[in-house]
Amino acid sequence: xxxRELIKKLSQLLRKDGVGALMVAPGPDMRFxxxxxxMMCERYQALYVTADExxxxxxxxLYVDEIxxxxxxxxxxxxxxxxxxxxxxxxxxxxYGLIGKKIAVNGxxxxxxxxRLMKNIDFQVENGKDxxxxxxxxxxxxxxxxxxxxxxxxxxxxNDIVKFIKPGLTEKDIKTEIARLCVHYGGSNASxxxxxxGANAAMPHYMGGSAxxxxxxxxxxxxxxxxxxxxxxxxxxxxxxxxxxxxxxIYNLVLKANLAGEAAAVNGAYIxxxxxxxxxxxxxxxxxxxxxxxxxxxxxxxxxxxxYIHGDYHMNLAPGMAFSCEPGIYIKDExxxxxxxxxxxxxxxxxxxxxxxxxxxxxxx
Length: 365
Known about the structure:
- By secondary structure, the protein is an alpha+beta fold.
- The protein has two domains: about 5-135, Creatinase/prolidase N-terminal domain (Creatine Amidinohydrolase, Chain A, domain 1, 3-Layer(aba) Sandwich); about 140-365, Alpha-Beta Complex (Creatine Amidinohydrolase).
- Helices cover about 35% and strands about 20% of the residues.
- The chain contains ten helices and 19 strands.
- It has helices at about 5-15, 30-35, 65-70, 85-95, 110-120, 130-135, 140-165, 170-185, 245-265, 270-285; strands at about 20-25, 45-50, 55-60, 75-80, 100-105, 125, 195, 220-225, 225, 230, 235-240, 295-300, 305-310, 320-325, 330, 335-340, 340-345, 350-355, 365.
- The strands form six sheets. It has a six-stranded mixed sheet with strand order 4-3-2-1-5-6, with helices on both faces. It has a four-stranded mixed sheet with strand order 7-8-11-19, with helices on one face. A three-stranded antiparallel sheet has the order 14-17-18.
- Helix 7 packs across helix 8 and helix 9 (about 245-265) runs antiparallel to helix 10.
- The radius of gyration is 23 Å and the shape is elongated.
């Protein structure tokens, strides 16, 4: 069902920038606008929101009935596999007066389809990412509550997974159990996330799974799920066996940075200052180059969305914003430590740390 209030807000932004329409392919942005999204494949399909608040959809014939039910009362234009879909799109553009106009495109639109459209239709492509993210950057009370519930799920998962980890398991074994536990506790869209053992943890977005957990390994786990469409995101790093003094020092430094970032994340805070508050803790001990990513990212309908918590995101925190705080230190071929919580500025303007499970150093012996 089309959310008319959201369409109105988007259309106002489009008009302000002289953009004729926004093109949105299936994914988190569409779920935000419609409450659902169809399967995405190589066939071109997109929801359009125009500057004059009109909504229509173009898709392959196999999706027409599903989309018609999803957006009752709106026009749905279908094309067959034997058609040149660009000619169907061109006719629709002519009908809605979009030929020669600026069309903002969201991040889910497939590049190979967009290239074909641009070769056959006269329009200018604009970046549509911010239109959607800034429309939903302030969460509603219901969305904030679902963020809380989603974080409660992963807190329970972490408390259980610590009891499951032992030498001899693979990273994949742990990921599989994390996904199972997320579902068990009421979460959806759980993949098991990132599980990185030993030196693999020095790669912040490591996606392997075959390493076997050994005695004295560090195990870094970054995972989440959804409740009510809202994502959670947590990272905890534990030690199998006793941690060395150097490992303890690095862990406690990351924890100190995490707490400093969260302390700085207050209503009205300038986002670059929040990032700097955590980063200077790490830099002061000589590990600045080893903290090689932003402090955090917004979270909600997508795992990563606005606001982005780094030094070049010039915005102030405000009630309704939700984001992660996840400093880390990564030393190639040695160790990686990251500690992550989801933080919100709640309806009262207070800072809430949604993840409640312990951040103290854990040794599994």
